[in-house]
Amino acid sequence: MATIEWRSPASEMAVRQFDIAAERLNLDKNVAGRLRRPDRALIVSVPTRMDDGSVHVFTGYRVQHNDVLGPFKGGIRYHPDVNLGEVGALAMWMTWKCSLVGLPLGGGKGGIACDPKKLSRNELQGMTRRYTAEILNFIGPEVDIPAPDMGTNEQVMAWVMDTYSQHKGYAVPGVVTGKPVDIGGSLGRREATGRGVVYMIMEAAKHLELDLAKCSAVVQGFGNVGLVTARELAALGVKVVGASDTSGAVWNAKGLPMAEFVLYKDKNKRVQGFPGAESVPGAELLELKCDILIPAAGEMQITGENAAGLKCKILAEGANGPTTPEADQILKEKGIFIIPDILANAGGVIVSYFEWVQDLQNFFWTEDEIRNRLREILNRAFHEVIGVSRREKVDMRVAALMIGVKRVARAMLWRGLYA
Ligand code: GLU
Prior knowledge:
46% of the residues lie in helices and 17% in strands. It is an alpha/beta fold. It is globular, with a radius of gyration of 20 Å.
């Protein structure tokens, strides 16, 4: 992103990906120049009363990349490494993701540099409420609608919704998605991202003529996305042989006994030490032999350094930005089929869109309706990406980005420049 404030490995990567797609599209130079950087960014100090009585000042961000297609949309991340450049990159990816799957939404992202695992419930609540108060004038159902991301969950969304509503003087459920169902959340939102990853793996397997019941999988990251993906894959008969989280990585050649494994993770908050598996060094996990590899943790995990060691047939990106452009090149030569992040993990924001629509209409759908509509949208996008990839002779990532960028660019050209 053009200026020094944005500089970070993630934002450089996001811009490089964008430039590749923009060049293939022969994109209008003026439009490209605008899309390379976000519309707006907010940096806020978040003073928080800690349990020992002291006040700690956290730094929070909300970046709004582009809203030409509709209100900004994207999660809030709590992680020690959060910075402006990373949030900017994540916001840009949200723009392409919403556009690719045809949602009337733009791209945004927020975050606080903190370690949520080290905060008490009280501290987490105080920090969340103050952060919400600080960004209050920049969010809203018609403006910018946050959601969960790494390190945040439905409880955090409930506090955001409550803080916003207290300021307005009435309940505003449409200000965030990923809320508990009791206060206007949607059925199926919690499972949506993982479920979407699995729907896309099912389409990819059909496309590659692979029998999923004979496939094995490895999942990096066992948060909401990784866990649901692993569980649903196992339910389809896929042998999930490896999994990791921040505690370490575990492996069982016969397949992890999923029900026990999920119970263990739930209870102990880690995968390390699970009695039904051996532990393996985290760095080796991605290079384990498997048919399907699912990175569902942070950015830039598959790089020029380790890409050559990957042994999977399908790489399904549950995380945002897990693969660097250098790695993309190597994976292409190896013939690995990539389901790119903006397609593979779009299930989350698709059901967020459903949640927002339900909140605005005060009319709620059944879980079956949600699942069916989610699958329909994702499958349509999958085949659109395959089509562009064939026609333009580009890989799946470039094809997905081309579709996402093109829709946004077209809308910008229609709307023109307000000066
Ligand atoms: N944080 C998720 C993502 O990266 C979901 C965003 C949303 O639901 O708005 O796609």
